[in-house]
Amino acid sequence: MNTQVKEKIKEIVSGKNYFDSPEDKLVYSYDATAEFQKLPEAIVFPEDEEQISKLVKLANQEKFNIVPRGSGTGLSGGSVPVDNSVVVVMTRWNKILEIDQNNLAAWVQPGVITGDFQLAVENTGLFYPPDPGSMNVSTLGGNVANNAGGLRGLKYGVTKNYVMGIEMILPNGDFLKTGGKNVKDVAGYNLKDFIVGSEGTLGVITKILLKLIPKPASTITLLAYYDRLIDSAQSVSDIIAAHVTPSMMEFLDNTTINCVEDYTHIGLPRNAQAMLILEVDGKGSGVQEEADIISGILKKNKASEVKVATNEAQANILKTARRTAFSALARKSPTTILEDATVPRSELPVMMEKIIEAARKNDVVIGNFGHAGDGNLHPTCLTDERDKAELEKSHRAFDFIFNEAIKLGGTITGEHGTGLGKKQFLEGLAGIPGMTMMKQIKSAIDENNIINPGKIFDIGPKCEGSLPRNRNQIKDFHMH
Q1: Among 6, 149, 317, 352, which is 20 to 30 Å from 131 by CA?
Q2: CATH among 3.30.43.10, 3.40.50.720, 3.30.450.30, 3.40.50.2300 for 3-91+443-452+460-473
Q3: What does the alpha-carbon distance between residue 351 and residue 402 come to, in Å, rounded to a whole number?
C-alpha cells in the first residue's frame, strides 16, 4: 500500500484513529489461534458509519482489503489480517443503546463486551443466554460474526437464536438495516440469518438488535466425577433420552481436570477420568424435580461422586472452573491448539473415543472438554509450534478428528467458525453445490472481494496465500 493511499485513509478516519507503527501492526496481526499471523498495512478505529462507508468505497477503488475486528478472541483465524489489508477495529463502539423491557429486546453497538451486556440485562430482571467461554473479553459483534455458542447452548441455543436485527456497512459502502422488534417477520429473504456466522466476510456490523427473555427464578448446579470416560458419555445420552434439558451439561476429561486443578486449586480429584458439570433452571418445583432425575441418572451410570452446589457462590466456582479450561491447558505447553468438532448427541461416546484414538495414533497430548449436551467437544492439543515435527503430528490428529466427525454426521465447527483454520475441510462437509452457492453469494455481495477475503473459502487469487502458519515466521517486524 503506497503512501498516497494511506494519506487518503487518514483523511477519512482522522490521524488520531489511524495507526501503522511496527508495534501496532504486531498487536493486530493475530487472534486467539496459535498458528496464523500476518502484519496489516494499517489499523483504524472508525468513529461512525460514514467513515466506514467511505473507507470501504476507497478499498474498492484502490483495491486494498478490509478486515473487521473486535477483541480478537476468535479461534479460527477469522480476524487475522490478509495481504494488503487494513484492520477495522470496532471495540470503541461499546454502548448499550437501549434495553426495551416492553419488547424484550436491546439495541447494542458491536464492541459491547458480552459479559458486561449480560450483567446490565440481568439488573433489569431479564436474561441474555449466549455465554461463550470468552464472554468477559469477547464482543457482541464478534459473537454475531461467528455465531458464538456457550455453556447454556443446550437449552437456550446460540447467538443466532437471539439476533432480531442488524445494521451494517456492505462491501460497496451501502448501509443495510435488516430485521426489527417484530416477533414475526417473513418479508423476503431472512438477511440477518445470512449475516450471522458469516465471519466478517459480508460487511462491517455497526449495530445489533438482540432478543431477551425473563431471567430464570432459580438454578441448581450439579457436579459428577467418573472413573471411566464411557460412563460420563452414557450419562449424557441417558439424560437427553429422559427428556430432561439442563441449561448446562459440560464435560472435562482427566487431562483437563488436572490442568484446571493446577490453575484454580479448588480441590478437583486428579484421578477422575471425567467430570460433568450440569445446571437446571426455571421456576417452581420443576427445577428440583429435574435435578433429582439427573442425579439418579448420574448415579445409575456409576458416577463415583455426585455433588450439588449449596449456594450461588459455590455454583459460580464450578462454572468458572469449566470456563478456565482453555486457559489452564494453555499453561502447559508453548502452543495450544483448541478446536471444536461437533457430532449428533447420540454419537458423543464414539467421538470421544475417536479423539483418544487420534492422540494415541499421532503421539500427541490432547485435553478434551466441551458442551457435552449439544455434542460440541473441544479437543485441545498441547504442542510446540517451534518444533515442526510436533506441529505436523497435531495437524494429522485434527485431520483425523474432523474427518471422523463428518463420517458420524457431525460438522467441523460448532461455534468457533471456519476462518482460515478449517476451510480445507469445508468442501467435504458442504459438498460442491454448497460451496458453489456460498461463493456465489459472497461474489454477488462483495464484487471486488475486499471484505475479509480468504476466510471460510477462497475466491479468485488466494489473498492469504503467503500467510504464515507460525508466528515465528514473521520476517518483516523488527523491534527498535
Answers
A1: 352
A2: 3.30.43.10
A3: 10
What is the Rg, in whole angstroms, of the alpha carbon atoms belonging to the chain? Answer: 23
pLDDT tens per residue across span 429-474: 999 999 999 999 999 999 999 999 999 999 864 444 444 444 443 3
Query: pLDDT tens, 316-353?
Result: 888 888 888 988 999 999 999 999 999 998 899 899 99
Strand, helix or coil at 400?
helix
The third-level CATH classification (topology) of the domain covering 218-407 is Vanillyl-alcohol Oxidase; Chain A, domain 3 (3.40.462)
Backbone angles phi, psi at 405, to 5 degrees: -60, -45
pLDDT at 460: 67
Per the CB < 8 A criterion, the answer to whether 220 and 279 are in contact is: yes
E-state strands within 162-302: 163-169, 175-179, 204-211, 213-214, 218-226, 248-253, 274-282
Angstrom distance (rounded) from CA 343 to CA 406:
8
Q: Determine the Cα–Cα distance for residues 419 and 412; give it in Å rounded to an integer.
A: 11
Assigned CATH class of 98-214: alpha beta
| Residue 420 neighbours by CB under 8 Å, 6+ apart | 33, 36, 76, 77, 78, 80, 454, 455, 464, 467
Q: Cell numbers 487494513 label which residue?
A: 86
Angle, helices 254-264 vs 312-323, to 10°: value is 120
- Pairing mode of beta strands 213-214, 204-211: unpaired
Give 20's DSSP letter: -
| Three cell numbers, residue 49 | 458509519
pLDDT reported for residue 376: 94
3 state DSSP class of 49: helix
Q: Which of 79, 74, 73, 107 is nearest to 93 (CA)?
A: 107
Domain chopping of the chain, boundaries: 3-91+443-452+460-473, 98-214, 218-407
In the chain, the amino acid numbered 232 is S
Q: Is 399 exposed, middle or buried, given 0-12, 13-18 or 19+ CB atoms closer than 10 A?
A: middle
The string of pLDDT tens digits covering residues 66-124 is: 999 999 999 999 999 999 999 999 999 999 999 999 999 999 999 999 999 999 999 99
What CA–CA distances, in Å, run from 346 to 34, 109, 468? 31, 39, 38
CA distance 276 to 154: 14
Instruction: Write down the pLDDT at residue 133.
Output: 87
Q: Which of 372, 73, 426 is nearest to 239 (CA)?
A: 372
